[in-house]
Write a structure and sequence with these properties.
Blueprint: E1 2-3, E2 6-7, H1 15-18, H2 22-25, H3 34-56, H4 76-82, H5 88-94, E3 102-105, E4 109-112, H6 115-119, H7 143-157, E5 183-184, E6 187-188, H8 192-197, H9 202-226, H10 229-236, H11 248-256, H12 269-276, H13 291-294
Length: 296
């Protein structure tokens, strides 16, 4: 039947026409017949319409967490622990991220795939606010606190779609007087202890890689300062039962140094010296905060 908004198909199939194709009217084992297929198609269309409508919504439907503001402001950690963070999966759903675009790290943290940029490439570009050039107070209220506070005001009070982008804490300033790198007071990232110390674990991987490189440089400088060229050469290219032989990495280094000889026993004294020594200048190495870990 027809209606004001258009027309739609109802009821079962036309038997006389459908009888010409037996598979159309003959249900498969389990009862999946033409009406079941028709309803599945209708559900698919409805789901697609809802998905498109959701993508077109300009304002996020976010459930903001209430804050219990006290006149005597507690410490940052007390404020953070007094609030129960929302599950990050719920937050991702509220702002329109697909499950395939979110990599969860527990219930409170997640990484967002860069594929979101491609999916939303046709969206209108938003405004970009840079918080910079602030001299923090003795207690550390500076760029991070201001950034989080602005985001809270624009999102929770002005009802605008907004993201706060702050760097991952390097832990260097975390334990100083400023306390943390997640903002402060009622304008901070929660859970603040996980944000400051771990987040998704990337900072630990960077720290391990940095320490490995520092140990390699330190060991190399020590060996080069205490051993002769021949001793170093013997360690790098040891004489085995099958004789001496350069590895592929060592052959690449020879090429980089302009040495064409590939027989370990035929290198000159000058070529051996160039090969075994990096001659790292100690004055070019700065350990910065690494000294805190090397004193033990």
């Amino acid at each position: 039947p027809s209606k004001k908004s258009g027309s739609r198909l109802v009821g079962d199939v036309e038997y006389a026409d459908a009888a010409k194709v037996a598979s159309v009217i003959t249900p498969v084992p389990g009862g999946v017949g033409p009406m079941t297929v028709a309803m599945l198609m209708q559900n698919t269309v409805i789901s697609a319409q809802k998905a498109v409508a959701r993508m077109r919504v300009s304002e996020w439907n976010i459930r903001y967490l209430p804050q219990d503001l006290l006149e005597k402001v507690p410490s940052d950690i007390e404020i953070a622990r007094a609030q129960t963070p929302k599950d990050v999966a719920e937050l991702a759903d509220e702002i329109g991220l697909l499950s395939s675009e979110v990599d969860l790290y527990g219930k409170k943290k997640a990484k967002v795939s860069l594929s979101v940029l491609q999916r939303l490439a046709s969206q209108k570009v938003g405004k970009y606010i840079v918080v910079a050039g602030i001299t923090p107070t003795p207690l550390g209220e500076g760029k991070s606190t201001t950034t989080i506070g602005l985001t809270q005001a624009i999102g929770a009070h002005l009802k605008k779609n907004v993201f706060a982008c702050v760097r991952q804490p390097s832990q260097g300033p975390t334990f100083g007087i400023k306390g943390g790198a997640a903002g402060g007071g009622y304008s901070q990232v929660i859970p603040m202890d996980e944000f400051n110390l771990h987040l998704t674990g990337d900072i630990h991987a960077i720290t391990a890689a940095n320490n490995l490189l520092a140990a390699q440089i330190d060991a190399r400088m020590f060996h080069e300062s205490t051993q002769t060229d021949q001793a170093l050469y013997g360690r790098l290219v040891p004489r085995l039962k099958s004789g001496r032989q350069f590895s592929q990495i060592q052959i690449n280094r020879l090429k980089k140094l302009g040495i064409v000889e590939t027989d370990p026993d035929k290198l000159t004294e000058e070529e051996i010296k160039k090969f075994v020594r990096l001659n790292i200048d100690p004055n070019t190495i700065t350990w910065q905060r690494g000294k805190l870990f090397w004193c033990s």
